[in-house]
């Protein structure tokens, strides 16, 4: 709807090679997506979660399957990369859309995947890297992992680590915590002349 702030919290999981050296032509491909859509601080009813079939290297490495706890069968049942872009474009149709991720890899890999598939990048709005905001806000030297950042607040992360929708929800929950701290630490506005006059009257009343 026009005039509403629309935030998209997105997390992707990617393919990875078997060893340290990449096979010829290898690049990380998106194999899972999680999206949490928020309007005016309210999560919309429909969240999006899906596996995505990679095109360049359709068979997952054992390392990837073990690390993400994911099976080849689930990936084979996923949507195509083209269908993923169609979904992302639908989310982007809202006015004033801001995409928020933990780290910059999600958007980097999405851009690369679009380039390798000769597809147009689906987003037209703003982007925010919450991990960099967190780092600057707390003055950390290094970027903090998503789950560790939540634990530093004394909270529990949502669901399982490296599940796209769970990590997107965790990013949203951490976003709320950081924004609340930012508001708390904002300097109060200086009093107006009218405020000062009223305060002077109060002081005079209690002084007599």
From TrEMBL:
Ribosomal protein recorded as keyword: no
UniProt keyword annotations, A-Z: Exonuclease, Hydrolase, Nuclease
An annotated Gene Ontology molecular function: exonuclease activity
Keyword presence, Ribosomal protein: no
Alphabetized SUPFAM superfamilies for the sequence: Ribonuclease H-like
SMART domains in the cross-refs: EXOIII
InterPro entries assigned: 3-5_Exoribonuclease, ERI-1_3'hExo-like, Ribonucl_H, RNaseH-like_sf, RNaseH_sf
Domain Exonuclease: 6-184
PANTHER family: 3'-5' EXONUCLEASE ERI1-RELATED, 3'-5' EXORIBONUCLEASE 1-RELATED
NCBIfam families: PRK07748.1
Protein name per its UniProtKB record: 3'-5' exonuclease KapD
Gene symbol of the encoding locus: kapD
């Amino acid at each position: 709807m026009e005039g509403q702030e629309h935030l998209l919290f997105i997390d992707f999981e990617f393919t990875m090679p078997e060893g340290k050296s990449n096979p010829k032509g290898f690049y990380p491909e998106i194999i899972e997506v999680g999206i949490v859509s928020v309007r005016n601080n309210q999560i919309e009813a429909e969240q999006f979660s899906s596996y995505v079939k990679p095109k360049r290297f359709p068979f997952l490495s054992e390392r990837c399957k073990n690390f993400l706890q994911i099976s080849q069968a689930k990936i084979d049942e996923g949507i195509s990369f083209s269908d993923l872009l169609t979904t992302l474009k639908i989310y982007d149709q809202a006015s004033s859309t801001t995409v928020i991720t933990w780290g910059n890899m999600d958007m980097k890999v999405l851009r690369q995947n679009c380039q390798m598939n000769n597809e147009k990048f689906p987003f037209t709005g703003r982007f925010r890297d919450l991990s960099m905001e967190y780092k600057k806000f707390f003055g950390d030297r290094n970027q903090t992992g998503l789950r560790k950042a939540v634990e530093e607040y004394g909270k529990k992360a949502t669901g399982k680590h490296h599940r796209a929708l769970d990590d997107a929800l965790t990013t949203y929950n951490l976003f709320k915590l950081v924004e609340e701290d930012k508001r708390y630490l904002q300097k109060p506005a200086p009093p107006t002349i009218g405020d000062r006059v009223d305060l002077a009257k109060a002081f005079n009343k209690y002084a007599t």
